[in-house]
Amino acid sequence: MFMILIKRSIFVVTIKILAGSYFIILPPPVRAEFSAIIEQEFSFNEQLNSEKYETLIKPEWRFDYGNNAQFVFKPKLRFDGLNRLSRATDKPENYSGINGTLFKNSHLDLMLDELYFDLELENTYWRIGKQQVVWGQADGLKILDVINPQNFREFILDEFEDSRIPLWMLNIEIPINDESNLQVLWIPDLTYHEFAEPGTTFQITSPIFVPQISDNFTLGQFVQNKPNSFFFDSDLGLRYATFYRGWDLTLNYLFFYDDSPVLYQQLEDSRINIDSRYQRSHLVGATANNVFGDLTLRTEIGYRSKQYYLMHFSPQIISEYRGVFETNEISSVIGLDWQGFDDIFLSFQWFQSYLFDYHSQVAAPRNNHIVSLLYHQSFENENWQFELLHLYGLDKTDSSLQLEISYLLEDNFKIWAGADFFSGDIQGLFGQFSDKDRITMGFEWGI
Fold it and tell me: Which residues neighbour 405 within 8 Å (Cβ) at sequence distance 6 or greater?
């Protein structure tokens, strides 16, 4: 429960998390601002059966305390009228004790989206609380943007800002000179990816991510093991950013638990028991961006230690490897953005990943290549907007295509219609949803 009250000369925030209550007492703000976004979206499948009827209400309060401090409070209310994207009535197990929904039933979720303080102390900038942190700028897929876990209830079709799960953390930015700064992150929030529930529209089925058990065996016991030490299991991140001779450069390091669990398998008679565990990893990465006239070059690279990939099912593989192969991985993306006309934006990206160690029974390819094309055009003084995002997997020959056209009726009211298409090998990242094409429409109203 969250309450914001003005009482005489104090500003009171009451936060109730599980069985505990935490009180923050502040002086009255110099200035207070309120805004809100209300979104309504409908979607239909190929047979024109309703897939989604969702209302999102996202209010936001900002309280300024002079030039050096600000308090931001952003709850979010989601109403799902159909329950085809989510069915659980309890808080999912991927959330830590200090995160997750405040209230949940079969149709309604109330959650604290973000709540943080911004402070400037001794020429350093502190953001303390529940927040999102973005590393990297790739469209559609992520290389370095892994600070916050993601909600995959709609696979990757949601905007990243809406699908990221905010975390409680300490975020400090330390200016080094006029063109460089150091970011330090301490993240004690042990929350991980939220995947689509079994039986819902975007349940993951690809053998790259889900063990495939043959007909002669049955699924036995499933045990989930999560890190539980507030201090020792925290994630730590460092990012050095600078501007040098026209280049925006960053060096990134993250010591973290991978947000996807490793599904170890054990054979017991004719049953396959699953031991789900989160594993530590080191991420070392860099970005380099520059503008050359109408062309922008974006590059991003990340090296991860101890990545775990599922192997094709067999009793021998389970006995020897527990169904999982460990390797180090390097991933990168090269992007070219072009804006030669005032109303057209084009972006091409090439994603690559490489597994240093490999086994012929690993379900994922050793070399994985995905290309993307983003086309955006505006019409009639930007009242009309059209956008196309196409992702194509070269190795599995599968793809995702997202189309949307929107119209700004008023400065604060937008309507849109779109479509999402999947095709290709059903074992691929996109092809697993080849029968999940849909049409969408909705509106957004800003207050």
Answer: 384, 385, 386, 387, 416, 417, 418
**Share above pLDDT 90 across residues of the chain, in percent, rounded to a whole number:** 78
Q: Report the alpha-carbon distance of residue 238 to residue 184 in Å, rounded.
A: 5
- At 447, which amino acid appears? I
DSSP H helices, 249-393, are 315-321
For residue 161, give the H/E element and its range.
Answer: helix 160-163
Closest by CA position to 113, among listed 167, 171, 41: 167
CA dihedral 438, 442, 446, 447 (to 10 degrees): -130
What are the structural domain ranges in the chain?
2-446
Give per-residue burial for 60-96: e unless 16+ CB within 10 Å, then b.
Answer: bbbbebeeebbbbbbbbbbebebebbbebeebbebbb
- Contact (CB, 8 A) for 40 and 443: yes
Residue 26 main-chain phi, psi, to 5 deg = -125, 155
Which residue matches tokens 């994922």? 364
Give me the helices (H) in 179-259, please: none
| Reported confidence tier of residue 25, pLDDT bands at 50, 70, 90 | low
- Which position has the higher pLDDT, 149 or 22? 149
| Strand-strand pairing, 271-277 and 218-225 | parallel
Amino acid at 28: P
Confidence of residue 376 (pLDDT cuts 50, 70, 90): very high
Q: Contact at 8 Å (CB) between 256 and 285?
A: no
CATH topology of domain 2-446: Porin (2.40.160)
Which tens digit of pLDDT belongs to each residue from 102-123? 888 878 899 999 999 999 998 9
The predicted-structure confidence for 144-167, as pLDDT tens digits, reads as follows 999 999 999 999 999 888 899 999
Mean pLDDT (whole number) for 178-201: 95
3-state secondary structure (DSSP) of residue 432: helix
Q: Which residues contact 297 (CB under 8 A, 6 or more apart)?
A: 288, 289, 290, 291, 334, 335, 336
Residue the block writes with tokens 């030039």? 67
Six token digits for residue 408: 């700004």
Cβ distance 444 to 39 under 8 Å?
A: yes
Phi-psi sector, 434: left (phi>0), alpha (psi -120 to 50), beta: alpha
